[in-house]
Each structure stands twice: as C-alpha cells, then as structure tokens.
C-alpha cells in the first residue's frame, strides 16, 4: 500500500539555489527506506518537505492518498527524529516523551501507560525521571525515537540521527532501529550520507545527487548494478575503467577482451566498467586475467586493501583476505558476472528497460 | 593567569575607592547633627525623621512601583521585539538592531528632551503616565539586547520538533521558546529595573507637578543643602539593591545550572 507520494516536487530557494529538481517517489507502508547522498544533495530537503517544515516550490505531497502539500507540520501524522535529537532541555525524559500527548490533553493515566510502552520499545525502562543532560548520546537518541513514536505515526522520519554517535554505538543502533521498525510495522524514512548504514538497514534506497534521484532499488541492486559512475563511486569502493562494448556479453577494457553479463548495448559504444574490489581475486601471474604490480597495502582488520598498478597504468583497488608482498607482480581474476557495464548518461528508466530485454534469456 | 599579591591589592584598592563614598554616606547616616564634617555620636534620629517623612516614603514607593511596572511592560515588549528582530530577514534585521542600539547609546538628556517635546506637542499632561511611558521606552532596547543572544543560541530544531509533535504557534511559544529564553528575559527585567530606579535625566524632563521620583526629589532637596535624612534613605536603598542583586544572582545561578544542562546536551 502506498503511504507517501511525491509528485514532481521541486524546491528553489529565494537566492535561486535549486535544491530539488522534479522529484517523484512513491513509498509503501511498513518499509524501511533510505535517502542516501552527499551533503547538499537535497536529501534533508525532501525529508523536511515530507514533514512539513519546508514548502516545496512546485509539486504535490500525498499522504495515504490525500494531498497534504499545504497541511501544517503539526497536523501531519508523521513524526521526526532530528539530527541533533532536539530534545527539550528544560524537560526530563518522561516529559519529553509525553510532550505530544500532553499537547493533546490526554488523560494522565493514558499518558503514563503510553510513555512506559514507548520507553520499553526503545529499551529505556526506568529512565523516565532522568534529566536529558544525564543521558549519553545513544540514550538521548532513544529518547528522541520514543518521543517521535508516542503519537503512533504512520511514517517516521529520521534525519542523519546516527551521525553523532561513535562507530560501535552506531552499528548497535542500526540493528536496533531495524528491530524497532519491524516491531512497529510503520514506514521509516532514513536520511544518511553513510552508504554502509543505508545498505545495512534499508528495504529500498534512493541515491540522490544534485537534487535528483540517481537510482532507487534494493541495497543489493544498487550495489551490484549502479546506474552511473556517481552511484558506483558513492556506494562502496569500486574500480571504474573506460571500455568499449564489442558485442552482447563481451566488453573490452584494459587492453583486453572479456566475457561479461551485460547486453543490449550498441557494439563499439564507449562504456564504463565497474569492478568491485572484493570481487577481484589475487592469483599467480599466469592464472590471472590481468597482470598488476602491488604498490601499497593497508591492513583493515578483517581484510587487506591493496593498491596495484596495471600494465596500462590503471590503479586497481583490491580487497583480499591474504596479504601480498609490495612490489610483487600478481594476477587478478574475476568472473564474467563481476563485470558491470554502465552506458554513459543512461538514466535509471533506460537502464531498467534495457535490463528487461535480455535478462529473460538467462 | 597567575594571581599575584599586587593584582589583589590593586583590585582591593579599586573596590575600596568605588565603595568609599557609599560607605561614607552610610557611616554618617548614623551620626547625630545635620552635617557630615565629623561624626558626633551614634543615633537612629535620621531614620526616625525619614520614617516620619510621609512624602518621601510615598515617593520611594511610587518610584519602586514605577520601576516594577515599566520594567514588566518593557520585558514583555522587548521579548516580543527580540523575537520579531530574530525572525526578520538578514538585511532588515541589522537595520532594526541598529535602531535599537541608537536608543541605548544616545544620551538620556536628548531622550528626555525629545519625550518632553513629544508629550507637549500631543497635549499629553505630564505626570505618572508620562514618566511610565518614557521609562518603558528606554527600557525596551535593553531587554531586546538581553533576550536576543538567547534566541540566537537556541537550537531552531527545537521549534521544528515541537511543531512536529503537534504544537500550535502558542504552544511552541509557551512550552519551548519561553523556557529557553527565561535567563535572558530575567536579566533583561532586572537590567530594566535598575535603569528605571536610577534614572534621573529622562525623568527630570517628563515629571510634572504632581509626580516625582526619588532621584528627582533628592536632587531638588540637595539644592537646599544635604539633609542626613537622605543618607538614611540611601543606606536603605543600598541594602535593598544589595538584596535585589542577591536575588538575581540566586536566580541566574539556578538558571545557570539548567543552561549547563543545555550545554551538555549540545556537546
């Protein structure tokens, strides 16, 4: 069921800056969505337009089938967890969480019951009487979530709300957010610039850049089949080489011809080829498809990040569980499915349409 | 910075010089006789005449009432004024703020004279109302200046959050904005109070025949030679102000604790 729909939303500020260019998106209820993009990509603007803090210059916002474009933020059944939590410093945990219910003058017994439930959901039982300043960052985060879910919204917006936490806590909160979303069964829209976070938690990701949606899809789709080099570079590490399509299922790059899994591109067309560093295997020089010379190596704990120079001067990034000698000549091996071919300037719709023409043949 | 003995001596000296005239005045309020050339013997006499002087006591009460009323009104006006300035557009905001600051910088004599001209031109009779209005007028810019920094340091997402949770404009104001501004509003109120209490120049211009404040009254009495009754009154006022400062200190200290909490939250 569709819960939120943005219809041709644009946003231009008074100074002429265009934050959003014709955004169209449909969100289903009960799913975990991420808006992923670098700062200035417009992701927070989309969130603010859905919440009602910012007015779109043109276009319509639909909530549950109803036009809410001009509805005040206070009247929308949408709540927000803010980037810096925005907890009221003069109120304690209980009063913060109860804020929305007190505004609506609910009976005291109902408020107490619901606050207790909300604090239980975010695993903060027994913290009701604490002052906000006594809480750690992670606990403040949970209070902010409890405060936002007390009204039982159908959609919860989360604005970069993990970015202030340290790495370990952030990982922990990723699991927890996902668990809370599953438990409540409501739609989460999570804004982030951290691709790992988006990949880990989302049912569907919207990748944004320069006020436009670059690509949308499941984390696996976006990671494995980026539509352009922005998405390929932004999501994970990648080796992007320029190449030329020879015919369907064959592509030329780094001076050699390779079998690949892409088709529907005019033979001879210039393309870009993406190879993920973890798909590259290091082999003996003779067994590899390409020969490279190891230049440097970083130990990351669970893997090595290896930089190597190819014969044509291309700098390869390789992830390997085993270390290599610096200066050593090694071969790199990859399967045809590891090669992802991108057409220059292809939009997401064109990409999807092309995919359909040959994927049935497999 | 290292505290040296000379630093302390210097500081003590400055304080001593600043407070010496006041202590001198207090000292002679307990001296019998009618002049301050030398201390004769201890007496409550001047305090007795003071408390018998119904006119002076009435003026004292009226002065305090004027101060409370004008600073209260100025606090309300100034707080809303500061919010309006903060919400206005960047270029416009600077102009508004400059107009506000001109009123603080310009000499009291000019403000007093201009009020006198305004009131006579309007045919407004001089008296309590004219003094009250002018005191409110010169206190508003002070309150604006005290509240504005608190508005600037407030996290705007708090307002978004309140709206997000269903608060209407009034609820946002009363439940989020006001608590956040309270320290600034309090200091603005107390500043306005002291400005009103000790104003002489502006008041001198706009008091009519029927109404006078303490500073104007003492000034007119002093022209006929200082009466030690004034010393007694000054002593009482000094301790009253000391009490006020104490209360202010206590209130801001309590607010300060809350402000620290806010600081901790933002960190």
From TrEMBL, chain B:
Keywords for the protein's UniProt record, in alphabetical order: Cell membrane, Membrane, Transmembrane, Transmembrane helix, Transport
Subcellular location as annotated: Cell membrane
Pfam families: BPD_transp_1
Superkingdom per UniProt: Bacteria
Classification via SUPFAM superfamilies: MetI-like (SSF161098)
Key word Transmembrane present: yes
One cellular-component annotation, GO: plasma membrane
GO biological process: transmembrane transport
InterPro entries linked to this entry: Bact_Polyamine_Transport, MetI-like, MetI-like_sf
Topology in membrane: Multi-pass membrane protein
Ranges for domain ABC transmembrane type-1: 60-249
Residue spans crossing the bilayer: 9-30, 56-85, 97-122, 128-148, 176-197, 232-251
The family this protein is said to belong to: Belongs to the binding-protein-dependent transport system permease family. CysTW subfamily.
Protein name according to UniProt: Spermidine Putrescine ABC transporter permease component (TC_3.A.1.11.1)
Organism name: Lactobacillus delbrueckii subsp. delbrueckii
